[in-house]
Recover the amino acids of this structure.
């Protein structure tokens, strides 16, 4: 299927080079000075690299890749290009889940909280997809609009509970994506995201067919309901993991799959790697920008992505609009 | 028949106001009463300003589920304020004469809103696209605002933070007189435009055929809307879905889109919801700032229902 033409090979090499440069930058940009030379000679510098910089870089890569894939899957399932976990209630539901489990079982382990957040995200996303399928397909912009307001309603419920329980500050810290607290031992749950991406790779061809709609995919021998469940679990778990570990990072899942599909088409297996790499690169780049823009203070990646992502989204919207 | 509904709404608004003023009145009665009167005046203004501006905006854009706030106008206002703090510093911003500042902010919002919305209306974009673009613009402005918030010093941030939640307890009474004049002028203008609005609601082609200068009228009405939104945002903070809630309720109550009826009905519904809600939360539920969050929640549900029902029809 995927012909390794010379030009595809060249873009592949350029893309991996870009990602590698971003990783190196991420490792050596920070408040404590760290240079490649010192890492080799100075054990303290090596410690800093291994305990703080490397986990941070890995967390950004994992969360970015995962969220972009979650966006891709969600767009496939809802058959609408303008939805993603943070704008369709998935992230807000996960947030609500964390809040409730924090109130009821303050001592729960992180994995337990993640599980509850995942279940809440699953419920919230199911409601969204169920309703989205009932909106008329002739008006494609209603679905994302519905998603954003639906997310707002779930978010308002979370804010109300947080307000009553005096947890507003807690909520706002959980909500905003931020890698500054990532250290070795605090992010490892995110590796499950890599597992989810692998599962997505495994079911990629079936996802491509799902994008044709329910009747067509059943006609082609797909167990539609089962695939829907798999997709939902993938999206919910990835979102819940990233909300629990680093907070909400908006628009990654929206911008990246749209740009990739414009460049590479809609074959999920063919684009999956690009989407993952693109998401990882975008989040990493935004994190680096957040570290540099007001050096030595940091701007959370969620805030940077809010600006960059919304601008990208508008650009996509109007480019599409002007095409017809 | 319909007049009776308006009367009933007026009676409900009056009852809400009396309840707001009188429940739990103790201590230095003259002092408490003065404080409550000031707050009541602010709430009435906000209720009326939001309701009237939403109704006008819905007529101009020909869509029942649009509100100025959904299109990001109040986010734009907050962003403008934050940009001023960023440029002038918190102290510089705080030492500005509040009324000069307020006037400048309103003018800024009117200019920005026209620059943003008029091209969209002119190109007659697909309504869904326009809605979505407006919502995303709102997100963009909110993100820009929080980005700027991170770039300013903690002291400046304290000045800025107060503005970003709808707060019905810390109403800006210092702006009240000035805001009252603006709201009054806006409401009078809206009332005088009620027949033009009826014509506008027929759509651009019919309205032009009936002798309305479409672009000029619409531009004027949008300026009016952004002015009213600026007043309410300045007084209590952003409230994204309150206008939608009130306009929808009012239309259900009077059962007509005729503006001579709808405008006063919406204004009265706004007063009942805001003053009544505030009384309820203050005395029965013991915490008043949550009203903003509840309005957001209920307004969101109404919006979703309208979206599903409206797209079916």
């Amino acid at each position: 299927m995927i012909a390794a033409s010379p030009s595809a090979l060249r873009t592949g090499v350029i893309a991996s080079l870009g990602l590698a440069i971003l990783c190196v930058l991420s490792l050596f940009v920070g408040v404590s000075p760290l240079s490649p030379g010192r890492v080799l000679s100075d054990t303290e510098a090596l410690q800093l690299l291994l305990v703080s910089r490397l986990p941070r870089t890995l967390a950004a890569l994992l969360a970015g890749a995962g969220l972009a894939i979650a966006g891709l899957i969600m767009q496939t399932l809802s058959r609408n290009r303008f939805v993603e976990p943070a704008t369709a209630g998935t992230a807000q539901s996960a947030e609500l889940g964390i809040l409730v489990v924090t109130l009821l079982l303050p001592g729960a382990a992180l994995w337990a909280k993640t599980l509850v957040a995942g279940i809440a995200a699953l419920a919230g996303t199911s409601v969204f997809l169920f309703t989205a399928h009932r909106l008329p397909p002739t008006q494609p912009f209603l679905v994302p609009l519905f998603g954003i307001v639906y997310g707002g309603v779930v978010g308002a419920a979370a804010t109300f509970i947080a307000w009553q329980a005096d947890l507003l500050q807690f909520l706002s810290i959980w909500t905003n994506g931020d890698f500054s607290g990532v250290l070795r031992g605090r992010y490892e749950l995110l590796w499950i995201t890599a597992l989810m991406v692998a599962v997505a790779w495994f079911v990629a061809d079936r996802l491509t067919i799902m994008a044709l709609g329910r009747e067509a995919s059943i006609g082609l021998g797909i167990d539609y309901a089962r695939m829907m469940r798999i997709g939902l679990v993938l999206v919910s778990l990835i979102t819940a993991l990233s909300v629990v570990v680093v907070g909400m990072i908006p628009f990654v899942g929206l911008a990246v799959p749209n740009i990739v599909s414009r460049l590479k088409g809609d074959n999920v297996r063919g684009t999956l790697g690009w989407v993952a790499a693109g998401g990882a690169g975008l989040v990493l780049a935004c994190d680096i920008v957040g570290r540099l823009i007001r050096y030595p203070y940091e701007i959370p990646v969620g805030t940077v992505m809010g600006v960059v992502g919304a601008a990208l989204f508008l650009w996509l919207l109007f480019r599409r609009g002007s095409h017809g | 028949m319909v007049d009776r509904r308006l009367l009933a709404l007026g009676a409900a608004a009056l009852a809400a106001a009396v309840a707001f003023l009188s429940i739990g009145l103790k201590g230095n009665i003259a002092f408490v009463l003065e404080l409550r009167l000031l707050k009541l005046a602010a709430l009435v203004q906000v209720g009326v300003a939001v309701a009237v501006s939403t109704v006008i905006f819905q007529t101009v854009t020909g869509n029942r589920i649009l509100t100025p706030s959904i299109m990001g106008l109040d986010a734009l206002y907050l962003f403008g304020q934050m940009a001023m703090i960023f440029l002038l510093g918190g102290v510089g911003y705080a030492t500005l004469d509040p009324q000069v500042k307020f006037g400048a902010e309103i003018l800024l919002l009117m200019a920005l809103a026209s620059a943003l919305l008029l091209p969209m209306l002119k190109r007659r974009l697909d309504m869904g696209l326009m809605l979505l673009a407006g919502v995303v613009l709102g997100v963009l402005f909110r993100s820009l605002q929080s980005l700027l918030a991170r770039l300013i010093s903690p002291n400046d941030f304290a000045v800025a933070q107060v503005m970003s939640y709808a707060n019905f307890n810390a109403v800006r009474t210092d702006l009240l007189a000035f805001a009252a004049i603006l709201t009054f002028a806006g409401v009078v203008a809206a009332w005088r435009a009620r027949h033009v609005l009826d014509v506008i609601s027929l759509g651009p082609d019919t309205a032009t055929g009936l002798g309305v200068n479409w672009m000029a009228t619409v531009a004027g009405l949008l300026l009016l809307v952004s002015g009213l939104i600026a007043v309410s945002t300045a007084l209590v903070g952003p409230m994204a879905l309150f206008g939608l809630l009130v306009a929808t309720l009012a239309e259900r109550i009077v059962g007509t889109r005729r503006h001579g009826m709808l405008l006063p009905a919406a204004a009265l519904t706004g007063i009942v919801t805001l003053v009544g809600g505030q009384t309820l939360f203050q005395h029965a539920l013991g915490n008043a700032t949550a009203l903003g969050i509840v309005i957001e929640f209920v307004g969101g549900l109404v919006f979703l229902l309208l979206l599903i029902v409206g797209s079916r029809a």
Q: What stands out?
A: The interface with chain A takes residues 125-126, 128-129, 131-133, 135-137, 139-140, 142-144, 146-147, 150-151, 240-241, 287, 289-290, 293-294, 296-297, 300-301, 303-304, 307-308, 311-312 of chain B (CB under 8 Å). The CA atoms of residues 120 and 126 of chain B lie 9 Å apart. Chain B has a mean pLDDT of 80.
